Amino acid sequence: MGAIFANHLLRFDGRGAVHRHRQPHRAGDRCKYAGSMRWVVAAVGAVVFFGASASAQPNERETVSNGRAWYMYFGDHTLGESRWGFHFDGQLRMEGAFDRRNQLLLRPGINYDVSDNVQFSGGYAFINTNGLIGSPPNFDVPENRLWQQIILRQRVGEVRLTHRYRLEQRSIGKVAESSLGEGEVVGHSYVNRFRYFLKGTIPLARDDRYFAFYNELMVGFGENVQQNIFDQNRAYAAIGFRTGPATSFEIGYLLQTVQRPTGNMVLFNHTFQLGFFSSRPIG
User: Fold this and answer.
1) What is the pTM assigned to this prediction?
2) Tens of pLDDT along 234-267?
3) Which three-class secondary structure state does DSSP give residue 281?
4) Is residue 111 part of a domain?
5) What is the CATH number of the domain that holds 72?
6) Regarding beta strands 159-177 and 183-203, do their DSSP bridges make them parallel or antiparallel, or are they unpaired?
7) Is residue 202 within 8 Å of 217, Cβ to Cβ?
8) Count: domains in the chain
9) Who wins on pLDDT, 274 or 180?
10) Burial group, residue 70, by CB count within 10 angstroms (0-12, 13-18, 19+)
């Protein structure tokens, strides 16, 4: 594995915003972009494959399909010239385009850049989910979470890859209806989760655009895991737009396949995503 990450490494952020300007491409680069389009086709095929594989669940499980929209900000900001930096992502996840809030996620953290291509991070996350299955309807279910991760970056030809390995320690609220008809937190359940995220970006013919894809697998572990080790899978494809040397945004589609803890229900969330990314330094 060391050889894989030692070759063709390039500094770029974990979500696709490249840390340098790219020069305009001339007619002589057509062959290179033909190769890029082959990578795009292969990446789309991989996303479809992983999404379909995660969707292949036994017939005896109840399946539910939903329409979702996620609006997101991801920031990784170094502190001056140091190796230390600040991470923050905030996500508003809706049912439909703007029908009803499904989930709010706030995740601050601290980054440490071991090198241009290796980064350690850790932090805290707060998640508030409305209408979580298994809880009273339309009640907010809070979750407090600690997380630690390592990001490895590499380049294979024109494809820039990001590998992210994340551990999470999750304290999820148990909500019951109070005598006043309101949601009341009556306890917490503790679960561990491991996540592996692989993202690729491929430049397109226009210098300010790129194709992005990722797949993320999440598995639970520990004594409180119930009927499923598999927690969820996310398969994603998008078009990215660079708005500056350290800023970009992406518009794409995500298939989120979620297995409920009891193991007898699977959710297929067909999700529109709009994400903004920044790696501007602070100071």
Assistant:
1) 0.78
2) 999 999 999 999 999 999 999 999 987 776 789 9
3) coil
4) yes
5) 2.40.128
6) antiparallel
7) no
8) 1
9) 274
10) buried
| Interacting residues of 92 by C-beta distance below 8 A, sequence separation 6+ | 70, 71, 72, 101, 103, 104
> Average pLDDT for residues 17-29, to the nearest whole number?
42
Report the percent of the chain where pLDDT is more than 90.
Answer: 56
244 within some domain: yes
Does residue 283 form part of some domain? Answer: no
Instruction: Specify the range with the lowest mean pLDDT, choosing from 68-77, 146-155, 172-181.
Output: 172-181
Q: Which two tokens stand for residue 247?
A: 């800023």
Does 115 fall in a domain?
Answer: yes
Can you give the length of the chain in residues?
Answer: 283
User: What would the two tokens of residue 33 be?
Assistant: 């972009």
Residue closest to 152 by CA, chosen among 8, 19, 280, 14:
14
DSSP string, 31-81: HHHHHHHHHHHHHHHHHHHHHHHHH---TTSEEEEEEEEEEEEEEEEEBTT
3-state secondary structure of 2: helix
